[in-house]
Amino acid sequence: MDLSVCIVNWNTSRDLERALGSLAQGGRGLEYEIIVVDNRSRDDSVRMVKERFPQVQLICNQANLGFAAANNQAIAQSKGDFVLLLNSDTLVHPGALARLVEFMRDHPDCAVAGAKLLNGDGSLQFSCRRFPRMMAGFFRKVPLGRLLPENRYNREYLMSDWDHNQVREVDWVSGAAACLRREAIKDVGLLDEGYYMYCEDVDWCWRARQRGWKVYYVPEAVITHYIGRSSDQRPLAMVLRFHDSMIRFYWKHYAVQYRWPLRWIPPLGILARCSVVLTENLVTSVRNLPFRLRRRRAEAGP
């Protein structure tokens, strides 16, 4: 079998239906399987998959295990030469999966190849990046970054000074659409389940590169990513999860570079950043509360 497509789902039934439907064209020319892991959705995701896509292998968890652990369940069950981690909020363009598999077969030193991701409006998502540095964190999605949107730290991290139209070796690619080599998984190991959500893709690419593998961005494989459909359901919790993952990544891979007590400065900076982002989200939630209440009353009817 050429490819195993692994999708983790949590309350994104409509998006998941669209993603699964797109695989018929996106996977044309390949022998592939699809494995969906449902992290105890409250919507009709499970019923929809059973009724609309009976060929899909479905794993139903009794709790939300997070992104890394659920993907590891799918990987353990998969049989393909390559494993595609694919978000449920995606739309696979025709030929995208065949191009990823072709590239992987032509480049045996490649552990993971990332697709070119587009936003819903067709604009580019920066889905391949350099490994994070502390200064980039102080300018990403915080007030300082919005005051100086073209700062060099953002540009360097996002690789935004490049048009993203050529194949290129990169530091890491987004786990929203990442094709992994079976041999590399055996060598590098599974995703680190210590990351509930976020940074597990960065961590895996880091570990693969440490083992001598390469990471590539393949722009001919195009996938639309309607970003954040699961995480937006619990924005404050996701802010905490994100920064918790940042701290874990730092202690695993960066802390050894610093002497005591300097090694505590970056985690404190991450916590400070978390407090800023949380405050902004809370203010936004309070401002939007009247609108949400009016919408709920309208949906409830007279």
Written account of the structure:
The chain has 302 residues and is of the alpha/beta class. It folds into two domains: 3-126 and 164-230, Spore Coat Polysaccharide Biosynthesis Protein SpsA, Chain A, CATH 3.90.550.10; 233-294. The protein has eleven helices and eleven strands. The chain has helices at residues 13-26, 45-52, 67-77, 96-106, 134-139, 143-147, 152-158, 182-188, 200-210, 235-253, 265-300; strands spanning 3-9, 32-38, 57-60, 82-87, 90-92, 110-118, 128-129, 168-169, 172-173, 177-181, 214-225. The strands form two sheets. Strands 1, 2, 3, 4, 5, 6, 8, 10 and 11 form a nine-stranded mixed sheet that branches. Helix 1 (13-26) links the parallel strand 1 (3-9) and strand 2. Helix 1 (13-26) runs parallel beside helix 2 (45-52) and helix 10 (235-253) packs antiparallel against helix 11 (265-300). It is globular. The termini are far apart. 38% of the residues are buried.
